[in-house]
UniProtKB/TrEMBL annotation:
Listed InterPro entries: Papain-like_cys_pep_sf, Peptidase_C19, Peptidase_C19_UCH, USP
Annotated organism of origin: Camelina sativa (False flax)
Pfam family, one: UCH
PROSITE patterns according to UniProt: USP_3
Protein name in the entry: Ubiquitin carboxyl-terminal hydrolase 13-like
Residues annotated as domain USP: 1-212
């Protein structure tokens, strides 16, 4: 991301981007969309009645001597008579710029926390003005984080559609990351490696939150017929390119090595995982797709297949949309134990039931059985 260091510059660039987006929508049915998404309103001092009303598309938060986002809002709303604000309306998409840069003192790298869920109605709506609509629930969930790495470089951590999946966008490279990369690791502060202590130069400078009650309005899938005809080839080309990039990125896939009872080395209780069957599958694929691949390979119905990370740790997807990443984690290679359930108690159940599993050799299973 070719952004300069200053937080104010970043804020200006985001404002410019919103203005350009709105210009491109002028004269269309979507004109006014950026205001609807990003524009909020507040009342500012200089008098006790907060009579001066202003609009905003992003908010700057002071991080100095503040431990987290709530402390910054306290400071913003309980400031002196010249600078205090109260909010009449928060926008559906709330953009927060963390003021980590100071002209005289450089960058503030102190630890500063931000929650996955942000409740701006806390303590009886203390951040709201008297004329705010209290029927609107101002509960937000974190969508994206822009990080400054300390060397003038920026990257973004984004959660598409507010799913459990986090992606790191660093120039042309897109990688799957753990949620800790979006939260704890970007708080800043000191890190201890005894006997040394280091200050983290990489930390968040911008946060984007989405109001939970409006998630389905903001994130939706367009049908092909809703896409303008001239834009359809571009969409197809982008999707193809994205698939090619994903196929060429080794960290988009996981190698799942599957061991069965008969793979155990006699009398040792150990398995040589270099000699067992391996499957290479996309981390973002449905885990049920992986089940179907294993089912087809062995000729065993999917509802009879059981996977374990260990004897005491079964893997049980709760819904068909659960991904391989969610079920087995973000490692490049995963080792699983495979069992087949022949119990009549589980003839139709898609997930493990209570009781003892009946483990048997694959040769004992009737091929392509529908039991």
């Amino acid at each position: 991301m070719g952004l300069k260091t200053s937080t104010s510059t970043l804020q200006d660039e985001v404002k410019y981007l919103c203005e350009e987006l709105e210009k491109s929508l002028k004269g269309t049915a979507e004109e006014g969309t950026t205001q609807k998404l990003f524009e909020g309103h507040c009342r500012k001092a200089p008098d006790d009645n907060y009579t001066r009303k202003e609009s905003f598309s992003s908010l700057g938060l002071d991080v100095t001597n503040c431990k987290d986002v709530y402390a910054s809002f306290d400071k913003k709303c309980n400031g002196d008579i010249e600078s205090g604000v109260l909010f009449t309306e928060f926008p559906p998409v709330l953009q927060l710029h963390l003021s980590r840069f100071q002209n005289d003192h450089g960058k503030i790298n102190a630890r500063y926390e931000y929650p996955l869920e942000l409740d701006l109605d806390k303590e009886n709506g203390k951040y709201l003005s008297t004329d705010a609509d209290r029927s609107i629930r101002n509960l937000y969930t974190l969508h994206s984080v822009i990080v400054h790495n300390g060397d003038g470089h920026h990257f973004a951590l984004i959660r598409p559609r507010l799913s459990d999946l986090w992606l790191k966008y660093d120039n042309e490279v897109v990688k799957i990351v753990d949620v800790r990369r979006a939260l704890d690791e970007q708080y800043g502060g000191d890190e201890e490696f005894p006997p040394f202590t280091f200050t983290k130069g990489s930390n968040a400078i911008m946060l984007v939150y989405v109001r939970k009650s409006e998630k389905d309005k903001i994130f939706f899938t367009m049908d092909d017929e809703e896409i303008p005809e001239h834009a359809r080839p571009k969409k197809a080309a982008r999707l193809k390119k994205a698939e090619e990039i994903e196929d060429n990125q080794t960290d988009s896939f996981v190698i799942i090595k599957v061991a069965r009872v008969q793979d155990e080395q006699t009398g040792t209780g150990l398995v040589d995982f270099d000699k067992v069957l391996s499957f290479r599958i996309k981390k973002l694929s449905s885990f049920y797709k992986f089940l179907e691949i294993v089912s087809e390979h062995y000729g065993v119905p999917t509802h009879r297949i059981r996977f374990y990370k260990s004897q005491a740790c079964p893997i049980m997807p709760k819904k068909e949309s659960d991904t391989v990443l969610q079920m087995v984690g973000d490692s490049p290679e995963v080792r699983l134990l495979l069992q087949f359930d022949k119990s009549p108690l589980c003839a139709t159940c898609p997930c493990p039931g209570v009781g003892v599993f009946h483990v048997f050799d694959i040769e004992d299973w009737p091929r392509k059985s529908t039991m």
